Amino acid sequence: MEPDALREIYRKAKQQGYGFFANNIADTNTLIGLLKGYSEKKSDLIIQISPGAAAFAGDGDKLVGLRILSYTVRELARNYPIRVFINLDHFTVAEMELIKVAIEEELVASIMIDASAESFEENVRISRTVKEMAEPMGILIEAELGKIKGVEDEISSDEAFLTDPDEAVEFVQRSRADLLAISVGTEHGVSKGKDITLRTDIAKAIDQSLIASGLDIPLVLHGTSGLLPEQITEMISYGICKLNKDTHYQYVYGQAAHDFYLSHTSSIVPPNTIMKQTIAADHIFKTSDWSPCKDYFDPRVVSKVVRERIKETAMELIEQVGSAGKSLFDSTGGTR
C-alpha cells in the first residue's frame, strides 16, 4: 500500500503546515463516501482499520475481516484519482499475529501499535519490536505515549495521562517510531469541544523537543471528534499531521439513516402495526391492503444517502486540515 508515498505525504504536510484526517471504516458505505469526498477535494486519503472493525467485517474473525477490508479498499481505490493508504488503528500485543500477517501480506502502509497501557519500558520494547518487524517492508509505525481518556473500539481508559515532552524524545529515540501519538487532553468517543481542556502547550513542547533532538517526525492526535475547527488549526501548527476521525462519521452515518427512514416511514412500516422480526414480510403483504414501497426499503437506497452524507462531511473536514488539492496522485503511477 505504498508506505514510501505515505511517508512523503506526512513530510510535505509537516513542512507546509497542513494535516490529514485518518478515517476509520467498518463497511463499504463509509469507505465509498470518503473516496468520493476526498477525490472531489483532490486530497490523499488515510483509511484506518481497528481490531473491532476487522472483527465486524469478518463476522468475528479479525484476520478474515482485515483481509476483506484491506482488499476492498485496495480494489475500490483503483477507481479514484488520489492516493489511498491503510493504517491499522490501536492494534495491541493481543493482535500481534494479525500485525505479522498484515506485514507479510503487505495489507497496510502503516501500523499503530498501542502499548500505551504498559509501562514506559514495555511500551518502548513492544513498539521497537513492531518497528523491526515492519522495517523490511518499509511500513510506517505509529506508537503512543500517554493515555487518552474514553472508549475507542476495544480500547478503554477512565483517566488521561498527558505525554511528557522529555519522555517523548527518549521514547522516539529508543522505539524508532515513525509517528508519535500524544495525549494532550482529547477524548475518545463522544465529547464537546467546549468541555475539552486542550493542552496545546504540551503539543508545542513535544514538537520543539523532538526537532531539537533531530527527530522531526509527524505527531498524531487521537480523539478529535469533539474538537472545534480553531483547535484543529492550532494543533496542526504544533506538528500534528495526522488526526484520527471515527465517532464523527459513525454519528453522521446513523443520523443519515435515521432521517431517511423517518421521512419514509409510511412507505416501509404498515399503518397501526409494529412489524416484529418474527413475522414474515410476505404474511404482512398478504393480509393487508397496504404494501411497502421497494424504492425506500431496499438497503441500497439508504446506503446511497449515507454515502452522500459521509462525502459531504469529509469535504468539510478536509478544508479544516488544509489537505485539499495536495494529492500526490500521478496518473502515470508515479508520485508528484
Structure description:
The chain has 336 residues and is of the alpha/beta class. The chain has a single domain, classed as TIM Barrel (Alpha-Beta Barrel), CATH 3.20.20. It has 13 helices and eleven strands. The strands form two sheets. Strands 1-2-3-4-5-8-10-11 form an eight-stranded parallel barrel, surrounded by nine helices. Strands 7-6-9 form a three-stranded mixed β-sheet, with no helix packed on it. Helix 3 packs across helix 4 and helix 6 runs parallel beside helix 7. The protein is globular and about 75 Å long. About 4% of the residues have low confidence.
Secondary structure: elements and pairs:
Layout: H1 3-16, E1 20-24, H2 28-40, E2 45-49, H3 51-57, H4 62-77, E3 84-91, H5 96-104, E4 110-113, H6 120-134, E5 140-145, E6 149-152, E7 155-157, H7 165-175, E8 179-182, E9 187-188, H8 200-212, E10 219-221, H9 229-237, E11 240-245, H10 247-263, H11 281-286, H12 294-297, H13 299-321
Parallel strand pairs: 1-2, 1-11, 2-3, 3-4, 4-5, 5-8, 6-9, 8-10, 10-11
Antiparallel strand pairs: 6-7
Identify the CATH class: Alpha Beta
The CATH homologous superfamily is called Aldolase class I
Give the second-level CATH assignment, the architecture. Answer: Alpha-Beta Barrel
User: What overall geometry do the principal axes of the alpha carbons give?
Assistant: globular
Rg for CA atoms:
21 Å
Strand content of the residues, in percent? 5-15%
Query: How far apart, in Å, are the first and last alpha carbons?
Result: 17 Å
Strand order of the largest sheet: 1-2-3-4-5-8-10-11
CATH topology (level 3) name: TIM Barrel
Major sheet: size, sense and barrel closure? 8 strands, parallel, barrel
Low-pLDDT runs of 5+ residues are: 155-159, 188-194
Number of self-contained structural domains: 1
Say what oligomer this is: single chain
Assign the structural class, choosing from mainly alpha, mainly beta, alpha/beta, alpha+beta, or little secondary structure.
alpha/beta
Helix content: 40-55%
Total helix count?
13
